[in-house]
Amino acid sequence: MADVTIELELSSGVWTDVSADVLARVPVKWSRGIMDSGPLDLVARPGTLSFSLNNNASNSAATAGYYSPGHASVRSGFGHGTRARLKIDAGGGVTARYVFMGRLRSIAPTPGTTGPGACFCMAEDWLAEFADFDDLQLSLVEDQRSDQLIQDLVDLMETATVDLDIGIDTYPFAFDDLGSTQPQLLGIAQAVMQSERGFLYLRGDNSTGETLTMENRHARAKAANALTLTEADFAYSGGMHATSSLDRIFNDVETIVYPRRVDSSATTVLVSLDTEIEVGIGETVTMLVDYRDPANLAAKVGGKDMVAPAANTDYTANATSGGGGTDLTSDFDLSSTAFYGSRAKIVAVNNASVAGYLRGPSGADGMQLRGKGLYTYQPINSRSENASSIADFGRRNLPSPLEMPYQESQGIGAGVAQFISHLYGDIQNVPTQIRPLTEVPAKLQSCIVRDIGDKITISETQTAASAEVFINGVEGEITDGKTVRMKWTVAPASTASVLILDDSVAGKLDSNSLGYA
Hints:
mainly beta, 13-stranded mixed sheet, 12% helix, 38% strand
């Protein structure tokens, strides 16, 4: 049986083993990763860990309320935001592995001294913070790869341990398409991964339990098999979800790439306010404004080489509404105005002794901002049809085109469409979930070290399942404090040997077939 440990970071950098207070009668559960296996399932969603602590006088401190936030006797350092991690030692010489780390988000102690005396805890991993974070303005970036874009997003957050593949392409522009409706970081990461056709998720490890991992689009084509499971290796009940459905087959696939056009000089008026802005004596007014196409042709516009607002050229100010009264232009300071990829933050300070009205140049109603407009006028769609799959199963369209927001190459878009129509053209013998028989120590030892992104081979006679798959998501349950049951969400692996030029593994002309770049 496994040796299971739950640790809490009760003081900064110091982890405390609280396993003695974990109630074995309540299963410990965790899940994380990409919990589906479709063409758009590329980015993990927040994972969770749940467990219960002994909160009455029979716990390790002989203290009731030891795990009740706000209680006079609450354990020092315990509360919302405390980091928690789960470690499993499977024995057999296998190094103990941290399979989850996160912060306590929900703490629910049961009431009454005669009750069960439990404190139910739920932690969420780093991706929960990543998903919630939306108070940001992303600057325009140029000539960066997908791993650099992901690192840009990570740098906005608390430091995370990362393991990022080098992205395959360099994108001329990114973060120019967000505007006032910009999504949370997880949504932006999804756009980056769709542009790369890669994967982003958290893996466990032997030290912390949380490594943010990015696969580029070549990673799975080059991956070697890490584990083989046959029918004797699956759990007796629920060992495999092998439902065969046409809903999982896609043989007619479209992708969209987005070439940009940029102005030749930084003279385009990308912001022109429609009204004057009143600024009181000594006040600071802050406004967020999206860039717009002065020709009204592009729905989303980025800004490059934006010009700091210049007095009399981009704005004027007067003591009276409508441009009358004393000229206060020299008393207004707009030097703190900041520019981002798709919008600007105008910061106007009135240093005059009277209230003033900020206006545009030459008596225009509102001030303006200039720069090089960055436009997306005509996206390019590419389509791939898997003829043999259509003949066997009928036409199965991807419900909507796969958007690659930062990708400009039509050739890569077409290659990705072809790859997906091949990969998902016939997956009738590919399961969506498997549960290895980890109740057996030897099987737990071989499975505990496998994680999201690992390639495994499965074979099961009764269901006719026979395939190479990748682990996309991990779920686990520990009962009696020692019996570990695990379930993996799996995604299909390509059966073709894809040729990747200049690669020592996949670049052999005699054994690989041409694939997308």
